[in-house]
Specification:
about 240 residues, alpha/beta, 5-stranded parallel β-sheet, 4-stranded parallel β-sheet, globular
Length: about 240
Amino acid sequence: MRAVSLVPSLTEAVAVSAPGVLVGVTDWCTHPAGLDAARIGGTKNPDTARILGLAPDLVIANEEENRAPDLDALRAAGVEVLVTEIRTLPQAFRELERVLVACGAPARPGWLEEAERAWAAPPVPRGRSTAVVPVWRRPWMVLGRDTFAGDLLARLGVDHVHASHPDRYPRVPLEELQATAPDLVVLPDEPYRFTADDGPEAFPGLPCALVSGRHLTWYGPSLAEAPRVLGAALAAATR
């Protein structure tokens, strides 16, 4: 089996569960460290000619992270493309299993079992809270409806205020974000890298939780520790 992954979190899942299968990955595939595979460009601008030159049996993609025209071009060239849709935690578990089976993983990996156990009994918050969850600034963009990250936060007691917005990642002016008066602001370090010096200053008077974007937005081995890591960051912000 020769596979190319266009999704960083799925790259990690396949690499640790079916070593040697991946022959190509994106420039943004940072885990696991030292991955030996050809780099084929970004998630939104993959080099389709380079991918075809790798002669993959399968290309792994995601309906949110990758563009349909790129996937159509690969299919037209005769390559099988597996497109995942992951907007909730249960979907993530189902799609991860589907990807690993398609890649010929020898067995159901231990990290997947561990992740299911961890999310079956996540940290219990002191109470539910509301949050604004920016994912970009200049312009400000936030989590909207039907997002994987929003589902994880809800399971940890945090209801983000734009969950019913018609867009999945709406652009909302900062003044409107501030006017929602949430209990806290959740600032991940990806896709935009919010830091203690870049983000909290825009929300004076509000507690801000700086969280790991990998634990909030990736679906893969990081799910096993995500409840603990995210739960600790959220609790620290609201003490």
